[in-house]
Design brief:
about 475 residues; Methylamine Dehydrogenase, Chain H; five-stranded antiparallel sheet; four-stranded antiparallel sheet; about 35% strand; globular
Length: about 475
């Protein structure tokens, strides 16, 4: 039986509602047909779920702010961790002479967040991964090499705690692209001129990486059109991303579930093939640069507390591995065997002979130069014999070093810079100066022309070390 309301309800109301909806849809289509589609950024494709905003890569919330600085035509580049060839040696082969007494002039200095991140230099620009504690943001900063003024800054929200410093990584630059890794394993690629974000990857969310204790220390490697990283996730030990857009080119399987360390990937040529060497938490591996295939692995080298120094390539077939916490050192030799490549231990060194806690040794003219855990600078033959060591009056703690020409720039914990002759004949100090006033001057140095960039826990400075 029909009620009174049912009898008198207008039959045309549903038709009117449908017509209005169609009209609104038509107007929307007309007004939006010429608007460009938003560029797809890797990492933004996750399906919406409860709490999705918290799970997304925080880099997607990042912003870039322009500064007053500008790039200049100053000579020299330091494009990545450990310099032009990733071996700690400056490109210029000129003999390094001591600065003429006193301190090398400080051209500029700026305040930085607590940490040990080193700079990269390209085209008159200095790039530094930093942390803004007040704003709780990671910051990729671009500075003028001429005067230190900021050209641009890209920041994104990440909350981290003071944990023996907050930053550790060195960016990598190629042409107009810069790639950096933040303390919690977010990878960003920005335009070097404007700071605009090109793409981002979250190694934890996307590849199952575990943030190492004391945050990320791995520095990215760029070769050709690829960015090489080591997430150490359940299915991805190493990873190659396309530099142009961040898309995956290849992955290395991780059947043994080896985790990320503070060590960085090093390239090596062996038997006519390029491979990447990486120290994971339970061993060292070599993978094919072409497709990421696992070529060999060895459990002869692992450090129980923290693996920090990177592999040091020695000649055509050897790899020198070293670490602190009584790990000592190990020299591996690669051999061609039926079915592939094998790595065999050539010799070991006890910690008291040589073991570097933090910085990777540098190979020059068939000798290795590095800072031992007791703070002494040591020269080793590639057979593992000590050629010389600095005395107890010249200790370097956990400070960095680099080689330029015939000299070694080496910094101690307290900001004292020394220039030492790079020769196996003996420890010869050419110059010494107090260049920083803060503590823990551990960050990797960078050299461009005659400008040496150094840092301590909270300050970055540019020195003129040229001959005058």
């Amino acid at each position: 039986m029909k009620t009174e309301n049912q009898i008198h309800k207008p039959y045309w109301l549903p038709l009117l509602a449908a017509g209005l909806a169609g009209l609104l849809l038509l107007l929307w289509l007309v007004g939006n047909h010429d608007k460009p589609l938003k560029l797809r950024v890797p990492g933004t494709d996750a399906a919406p779920t409860a709490g999705d905003q918290l799970k997304r890569n925080p880099v997607l919330l990042g912003t870039v702010v322009a500064g007053v600085g500008s790039a200049t035509d100053l000579p020299g580049d330091w494009l990545q961790f450990r310099g032009p060839n990733r071996n700690g040696v400056a490109a210029a082969a000129d003999t390094v002479a001591a600065w003429p007494g006193g301190n090398p002039p400080e051209l500029w200095s700026i305040e930085v967040g607590e940490g040990y991140a080193g700079p990269a230099i390209s085209g008159g620009r200095v790039f530094l991964m930093d942390y803004d504690r007040a704003g709780k943001k990671d910051a990729l900063r671009c500075l003028s090499l001429a005067d230190g003024q900021e050209i641009w800054r890209f920041t994104y929200p990440v909350s981290i705690k003071r944990n023996h410093g907050m930053t550790r990584t060195v960016p990598a630059v190629q042409d107009d692209a810069i790639v950096a890794i933040g303390p919690k394993c977010q990878v960003i690629c920005c335009d070097t001129e404007t700071g605009r974000l090109r793409w981002t990857r979250d190694l934890v969310q996307e590849f199952g990486a575990a943030v190492p204790e004391w945050y990320t220390g791995q520095c990215p490697l760029i070769e050709g059109d690829r960015v090489i990283l080591a997430p150490g996730g359940p299915d991805t030990l190493l990873l190659a991303l396309r530099l142009s857009d961040g898309e995956v080119v290849w992955r290395t399987p991780n059947p043994n579930d080896w985790k990320m360390t503070h060590s960085s990937i090093m390239p090596m040529e062996f038997a006519g093939k390029r491979q990447y060497i990486y120290c994971a938490n339970k061993g060292v591996v070599g993978v094919s640069a072409e497709d990421g295939r696992l070529l060999w692995q060895s459990t002869d080298w692992k450090i129980s507390i923290a693996t920090v120094p990177s592999p040091c390539i020695v000649g055509e077939d050897r790899i020198f591995l070293t670490g602190g916490y009584n790990a000592g050192s190990l020299m591996l030799r690669l051999e061609t065997v039926e079915g592939g490549v094998a790595a065999k231990a050539l010799f070991r060194l006890a910690a008291e002979t040589f073991g570097a806690t933090q910085h990777t040794p540098i190979l020059k003219q068939n000798h290795l130069y590095g800072i031992r855990a007791d703070g002494r600078l040591v020269c080793l033959t590639t057979a593992g014999n000590v050629a010389w060591e600095s005395g107890s009056s010249d200790l370097f703690g956990l400070g960095p070093l680099l080689v330029a020409g015939d000299g070694i720039y080496a910094m101690n914990d307290a900001g004292v810079l020394r220039l030492i002759k790079a020769s196996p004949d003996g420890y010869v100090k050419l110059a010494e100066a107090q260049v920083l006033q803060g503590r823990e001057s551990w960050g990797p140095m960078a050299l461009a022309g005659t400008r040496l960039l150094v840092r301590d826990f909270t300050r970055l400075a540019c020195l003129d070390v040229g001959v005058r």
